[in-house]
Amino acid sequence: MNNKQDFIDYFKKKFELLDVYNYDIFYIYSDLRLFSQCLKFFNSKTEFCESIINLLLKNGKTVVMTTFSYTTQGVFDICSTKTTLGSLNKWILERDDYARSEHPLFSYSSLGLKKNIVSNIGKSAFGYDSVFHRLHKSNAAFLHIGRPVDMGNTSIHYIEQLCGATYRYHKCFNTKVFRNDTYVGTDYTAFLRKRDVIGEDFTFSFNLASRKLLQQGLLKEVGDPFENISLYPYDESIDFLASQFYLNPNIFINSNYKNYI
């Protein structure tokens, strides 16, 4: 790529090859480290990020990104608590027009026509009325930008909770959630991996799951591993991976743990 337009055209072409515009909402995973060599073509990091996401927003689409802060105690302010994640994730919180969910550990931020899909969520990070629950039947898709699919997907925890994984448990957090000066609530919960099983840490893995998505024909990819653009439909992928969990309850962990379901 030799200039700004080359960079934009690269994404236009990849999005068209993947039929991205058939979907309304995109849950985005990103790693822009290799793409950042093109930062020199832009006036700012903001312009660089906007050049990618605006291709979706200008077509009436909605983007959802993780803005996790992992605030396990004290105060989580929806409007001011920063995320510890990547460039796009930080960029979305610098805008004036984003919506952000209230979960103090696992918040999501959104832009676009249906951005309020992340607003006023339930208190379970991965359960009923969570962002994952709301994305169901919303014509959504997972979109990876520069981040290989096999590196992981937080939706596995939604599937684990849905299917009753026994290597995880529910934990409630007394973090106080505010929107500026307005108190929103507390006692948000998350489905976390157990830490009291000798010889097990239940580290998650998406390697097998991503291979199965590819074999099933659900995962489409273009580009090299760290310059890849990948797409897979939300509903079909969640349903398929849930069925695979029942066949192999350890599909998402590096373990031979006897996981009773």
What are the secondary-structure elements, in order, as H or E?
HEHEEHEEHEHEEEEHEEH
Low-confidence regions = none
Say how many strands there are. 12
Global structural class: alpha/beta
**How many separate helices?**
7
N→C terminal distance:
51 Å
How would you describe this structure to a colleague?
The chain has helices at 4-17, 45-57, 87-92, 131-135, 155-163, 207-215, 234-247, and strands at residues 25-30, 62-66, 75-77, 99-100, 108-112, 140-145, 168-173, 176-179, 182-185, 188-193, 220-222, 229-233. The strands form 3 sheets. It has a 7-stranded mixed beta sheet with strand order 4-5-2-1-6-12-11. Strands 3-8-9 form a 3-stranded mixed beta sheet, with no helix packed on it. Strands 7-10 form a two-stranded antiparallel sheet. The protein is of the alpha/beta class. The chain contains 7 helices and 12 strands. Helix 5 packs across helix 7 (234-247). It has one domain (4-247).
List the helices and strands and how they pair.
Layout: H1 4-17, E1 25-30, H2 45-57, E2 62-66, E3 75-77, H3 87-92, E4 99-100, E5 108-112, H4 131-135, E6 140-145, H5 155-163, E7 168-173, E8 176-179, E9 182-185, E10 188-193, H6 207-215, E11 220-222, E12 229-233, H7 234-247
Parallel strand pairs: 1-2, 1-6, 3-8
Antiparallel strand pairs: 2-5, 4-5, 6-12, 7-10, 8-9, 11-12
